[in-house]
Q: What sequence folds into this?
């Protein structure tokens, strides 16, 4: 498969405060991303899962350079982190973000027509006929009627607003979408409709999608591959069916065991000890060792390497490293 995006050695530290000690003033940082390496292939939906606060949204924003991480993000072999403002504006036509909350991401003072027209105007598409044509096409594409264009966001349900947000993301005809928990603010019955819509749009428009979620059930249905994230680290990466049939990392096993199922017995759920540690001061070596039910001595001393289990299945865990056993 052809790579669309190559993420290499990506780090993101947020400065949070300065403290004064005997040696002077020192800055403290929240370590949101730690040396992320990840490829995204053309035409796939890559699911990114993990607990709240593990760095999923930060990775999505970093890929689109909405924030400024360290490392490199190669889009079609060009590092977008080195782009100047003109290059970045051109890149925005190719890569768009679907926000989590449709209640806050749409301007309440603008009609839907104006909301959809705004990205076209920003990108110097001024022909009125071209603008109308694109807007009418995209509103039908997301399953809404043309009459919706003269109304305001408050007149729509949450699911309809998210359809409008998806239409806005598609108006510039991008190749790549980052969907940042696009169904988490919606009712369960509406979630299914939006997920099905995204799957259909991916096929119709040949899109590549990074789908960010904390819900493994949703990700299983939608994704071709899944990356599991814990405290700023990707700890396991695999094709979807392989991950669910043969999870390796203890954290992945715990996540999968928590997915509700009528066939699952209560004792099959793996319960993790303690809460997610603070990214301000993450555990040394393997970050999961403080909660891991399979912890061994080396876990608290040495950071594990990625181990290849199958052709498309990697895990970052000492349990599968021959040198650790």
A:
């Amino acid at each position: 498969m052809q790579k669309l995006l190559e993420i290499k050695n990506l780090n993101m530290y947020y400065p949070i405060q300065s403290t004064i000690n005997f040696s002077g003033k020192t800055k403290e940082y929240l370590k949101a991303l730690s040396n992320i390496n990840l490829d995204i292939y053309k035409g796939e939906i890559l699911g990114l899962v993990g607990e709240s606060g593990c760095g999923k949204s930060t990775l999505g924003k970093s890929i689109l350079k909405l924030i400024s991480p360290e490392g490199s993000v190669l889009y079609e072999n060009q590092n977008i982190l080195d782009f100047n403002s003109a290059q970045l504006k051109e890149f925005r036509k190719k890569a768009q973000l679907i926000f989590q909350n449709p209640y806050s991401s749409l301007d309440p003072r603008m009609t839907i027509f104006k909301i959809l027209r705004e990205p076209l105007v920003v990108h110097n598409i001024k022909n009125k006929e071209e603008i109308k044509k694109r807007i009418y096409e995209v509103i039908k594409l997301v399953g809404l009627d043309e009459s919706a264009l003269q109304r305001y966001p408050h007149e729509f349900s949450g699911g309809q607003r998210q359809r409008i947000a998806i239409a806005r993301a598609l108006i510039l005809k991008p190749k790549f979408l980052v969907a940042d928990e696009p169904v988490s603010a919606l009712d369960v019955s509406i979630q299914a409709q939006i997920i099905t819509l995204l799957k259909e749009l991916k096929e119709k428009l040949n899109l590549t999608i990074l789908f960010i979620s904390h819900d493994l059930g949703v990700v299983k249905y939608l994704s071709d591959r899944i990356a599991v994230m814990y405290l700023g680290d990707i700890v396991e990466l695999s094709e979807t069916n392989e991950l669910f049939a043969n999870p390796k990392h203890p954290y992945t096993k715990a996540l999968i065991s928590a997915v509700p199922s009528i066939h699952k017995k209560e004792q099959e759920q793996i319960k993790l000890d303690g809460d997610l540690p603070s990214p301000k001061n993450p555990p040394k070596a393997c970050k999961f060792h403080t909660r891991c039910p399979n912890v061994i001595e080396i876990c608290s001393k040495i950071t594990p390497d990625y181990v290849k289990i199958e052709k498309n299945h990697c895990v970052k865990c000492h349990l599968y490293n021959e040198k650790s056993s």
